[in-house]
Amino acid sequence: MKCGPVFLPLTAAPPLAIVREEHLPVKEELFMELRRTEQGFALYKEKDCIGECTLSPAPKGAQLTALCILPRWRRKGYGSYLLKEVLRSFGGYDREAATVFTAPLPENAAELAFWGKFGFAAEGGQLVRRRTPDLTAVKFVQDFLAARLVHPQLCVDATCGNGGDTAFLCNLTAPAGRVLAFDVQPEAIRSTRTRLEQANVPAERYELVCGSHADLLQYVQPGTADAVMFNFGWLPGADHGVFSTAQSSIPALQAALQAVRPGGIVSAILYSGAVIGSDEKQAVLRFLRALPLKSFTVLVCDFANWAETAPLPCLILKK
């Protein structure tokens, strides 16, 4: 393929991705394919290859050597599309992943401005795009638990959702600990089981319960759990009309406080917004602030420059 180089970053992507061209700023609605090649990727419009990208995979991203779009297809969004898809395929837009992409330094200001739109900047004679993971509410809570708990033996994910916290707890309690995970939605249990199986977590190390977290004392003896995690709200990717409420959340928190041992931790991430309102969040905060200091230390970890509706992590340390 003969065309002038337009340098862009890339790494590993699916062997074949088929997309509709309606995502691009052009009128035709034809199909495109992003194909993996020995050198990197090729972008096809119907049966014609209209662009290529060559690269070398790197541990946290990729080293791009060149990307070119055929002259007749330039300035129509194809270069931007290809770059975005490659970055996305290799974690470039993952909020929780640290990534580094590099590419040759372009010769003119226009190409440099193009790269700048995607976060690239000149550094040491090349273009570099670095992304530091955002500190999310979930990551904040997980980091706190990992730093404070030493060899936990029994942990509970009271709202397993898609299994993120369950997988975290399985890793935290390894190799001899056990994790109990609850969710009232069968699809959440299926999603969590699939995630754990794909991570090769031994089945004997966890138990998944399709039921209310308010019933956790039916499964956990009081004073025996090292930690209980709650991530309230709704199941990501599912019906947002199904979400937790204070009517079940507060009894579940009360049960969790009985379940954890002295020195144990109960974490809760609270949500509010147009769909779910703020009733649960405010009711749980009133409950937490009323807990006796002689028995518990309560942290409400407000991110001061986030929106008021941002997730709010809370931590309860049992004395």
From TrEMBL:
Keywords: Methyltransferase, Transferase. Residues 5-145 form the N-acetyltransferase domain. Gene3D superfamilies: 3.40.630.30, Vaccinia Virus protein VP39 (3.40.50.150). GO terms for molecular function: methyltransferase activity. InterPro entries: Acyl_CoA_acyltransferase, GNAT_dom, MnmM_MeTrfase, SAM-dependent_MTases_sf. GO terms for biological process: methylation. PANTHER family: S-ADENOSYL-L-METHIONINE-DEPENDENT METHYLTRANSFERASES SUPERFAMILY PROTEIN, TRNA (MNM(5)S(2)U34)-METHYLTRANSFERASE, CHLOROPLASTIC. This is Bifunctional GNAT family N-acetyltransferase/class I SAM-dependent methyltransferase. It comes from Faecalibacterium tardum. The lineage of its organism: Bacteria, Bacillati, Bacillota, Clostridia, Eubacteriales.
